[in-house]
Amino acid sequence: MGNELGHFREWDEEKPLDWFLLDYPRHLSFRRYIQDLNHIYSHYDALWENDYGFNGFKWIEVDNHDQSIYSYYRVGSKSTIIVVLNMTPVSYERYDVGVPEPGTYIELINSERDIYEGCNMTNYVAIDSSDDPLHQQPHRIQTRLAPFAAVMFIKDTYK
């Protein structure tokens, strides 16, 4: 409890939450990030529908030891979400990620957006996939990846 506030201390049922932390911009932006993640989780079945099945999670890139970038996708009956995690302080203006389906992809959330107190290195424009296989996937997208970023992409079904 209270994790969405960015607490400094462990939760204690005998003490109230430190609501005053929301007076600080970093804590307020962290709360917004958690709210946005919760909204995405509740609206996209890929993040919860197949939690207990083998088809709900697939690694894309799991063995990138040199750059420490990992990617996977989650699958639901109505949506597929690509997740890319950069675990280092290095940014990439161009980082290619294998994707299972052709099409146009849009950034759903990026932990480095300025509203979350990040560096704002994001993918504001839609990204068209190419037919070049990568990471044992039949297609790829070219992304921008900020240091220590967690980014989710979804295929744009309106195109």
Automatic annotation (TrEMBL):
Ranges of residues in domain Alpha-amylase/branching enzyme C-terminal all beta: 59-153
Taxonomic path: Bacteria, Bacillati, Bacillota, Erysipelotrichia, Erysipelotrichales
Entry-linked InterPro entries: A-amylase/branching_C (IPR006048), GH (IPR017853), Glyco_hydro_b (IPR013780)
Record Gene3D superfamilies: Glycosidases, Golgi alpha-mannosidase II
Protein name: Alpha amylase C-terminal domain-containing protein
Domain of life: Bacteria
GO biological process: one example: glycogen biosynthetic process
Organism: Erysipelothrix inopinata
GO terms under cellular component: cytosol
Molecular functions per Gene Ontology: 1,4-alpha-glucan branching enzyme activity; cation binding
